Amino acid sequence: MKSSAMKKTNHAIRLREGALATPTDLPATATRDIAAALNVLLADVFSLYLKTKSFHWHMSGPHFRDYHLLLDEQADQIFAMTDPIAERVRKLGEITVRSIGQIARTQRILDNDAVYVEPSDMLAELRDDNRALAASLREVHGVCDDNHDVGTTSLIEVWIDETERRTWFLFESARRGDSSGH
Questions:
Q1: How far out from the chain centre does Cα 117 lie?
Q2: pLDDT (tens digit per residue) in 46-76
Q3: Cα–Cα distance between 148 and 140 in angstroms, integer?
Q4: Mean pLDDT across 6-34
Q5: Dihedral Cα 5, 7, 9, 10, nearest 10 deg
Q6: C-beta of residue 31 within 8 angstroms of C-beta of residue 85
Q7: Which structural domains are found in the chain, ordered by start?
Q8: Distance separating alpha carbons of residues 60 and 16, to the nearest angstrom
Q9: Cβ contacts of residue 129 below 8 Å, gap of 6+?
């Protein structure tokens, strides 16, 4: 009987802490480190999504239609990353972000609450944010690779390519006939 009671207590503790009994051959230290890196990445992805969508909503000027459509397409692509990131954390038996507040405390991509932002500044800011996201993706890839998490690294490789493509499109869209685009 004592054993049954202990099992129930341990089960209750795990439920309260949110732990999953997800089977994985990765060690607990690996799942913890990978989940921590992915949760920071997830906060950044949500932040970049909302900023991209905000700039999409507030776009103006002679290139309105092209930029509006570009940012809408990019926002959709960024948002599409959120569920696989969060689900990957859960597949590892860990807990992922739970609220906007947690995202705000964790994000590294800065918000832009300005009432008006020039379209060229929007594109430049998003270009830089996507470039920073690509660097973060590479860092997380390294954590996953060090821990032999091929499932996560394969997802990240696709997201790096998508992020570099967004960076390239934003760079080219913001160019004004010079060769630097800065």
A1: 24
A2: 999 999 999 999 999 999 999 999 999 999 9
A3: 12
A4: 74
A5: 160
A6: no
A7: 29-174 (1.20.1260.10)
A8: 49
A9: 48, 51, 109
